[in-house]
Amino acid sequence: MVATKIVAINQLEQQIQTCITEQFTGRLDLCMTDADNQQWSLYFFQGSLSKSTSNRHPIRRWCRQVTIQCPQLAVNSVGEGSERLQYWDYDSLVKLVRQGQLVRRKMAAVVEGNIREIFFDIIQQVELGSNLGQSLVYRQIPENSRESILVLIRAEPVWQQAKQTWEAWQQAGLEKLSPNLAPVIWDADKLRQQTSLLAYHNLTTLADGNRTLRDLAVKLKQQLLPLTKSIMPYLRQELIGLIEVGDLSWKHKTTRSTNSQATTTISSVKQVQAQLTSPLVVYIDDSRSDSLIMSQILAQAGYRFINIRDPLKALPILLEQKPDLIFLDLVMPMVNGYEICSQIRRISLFQDTPVIILTSSDGIVDRVRAKMVGSSGFLAKPIERNKVLSTLLTYLPTTAPIG
Prior knowledge:
Layout lengths: L3 E3 L2 H13 L4 E7 L6 E7 L2 E7 L3 H12 L6 E2 L6 E2 L4 H9 L5 H28 L4 E7 L12 H17 L10 E4 L2 H7 L2 H10 L6 H8 L3 H13 L3 E4 L6 E7 L6 E7 L10 E5 L3 H13 L3 E5 L5 H8 L3 E5 L7 H9 L9 E5 L4 H9 L4 E4 L4 H11 L8
Parallel strand pairs: 12-13, 12-14, 14-15, 15-16
Antiparallel strand pairs: 1-7, 2-3, 2-7, 3-4, 5-6, 8-9, 10-11
Helix pairs in contact: 2-4, 4-5
């Protein structure tokens, strides 16, 4: 099929309206002409939507909608002694509906919520892309298959809802901010000074670089817009940053039927809630650029992360947060990494906590001195993903996130 370019939202709206009025059956594939290569697919059956997909955070999105609409499916044990399994994919819900374990109306709500989020993302990308000379490319692909179609969603009202959400997002001055970004603490000590103890605790617990703004809204049972507006003052002061984060990862469990002894592979996804127990890593460094690199690496690997930029205020925060591992920059103003490491080791709570010193000076004298003050290891700069992850696996082998 011929690809067609779209440079304005009203053009896409017209194309969707054409699919509705002509009772189109098939797939509408869309992608942005930029390096991010974001792609979406809208599945139509006789002018209504049966589902939608995206290559960005498909599991997170499905997970959110199931949590909102079908919380009873968040945990479901299958068989004696089996692990907890989650129904986080379209086909699993189709199966449950056909078995009479889930009403069709609930599945429709999940699918509709999924479509609404994807519509919002498409609108935002088209609006931002048009300012950068980018465009949306779509292809209309007729298909006759009706396999697994159990629910049909009217496209027009969902599109209008997504547009209204986008307009409110724009009016709040958030048009350049994607709700698929994850907040992470960049300056824990200053954040501590400007918030109540309760607010600080909540922020450092939840803004760990693993949950997107949308994930947090579901977790806290709040609306996305007011939640995002509430952290904007901290974003403007660079106490909190927003980073790209990967999707959740599937894990597979094999169970054996007691009747036929047949082996069935059940796809389940690591729960958002499980990330609360992922290892917490603190990075003490006054460099914002190095902290950003470290936060990206750790978040994408599934670790929780806090950055402390003032080394003189590190100890109270460490005592409060009790990290599983500490990365510590050697060269900082006022006090160096050797002194901070020595202070950390004087606290009984941290005698066995891995403390890794980072420096651009990787000499034998530096390594010996680091060892003398109780450092567990030494990591040479520049900060690189493979070196960081290798260090984490060395010192936190039993608590590394499942990915």
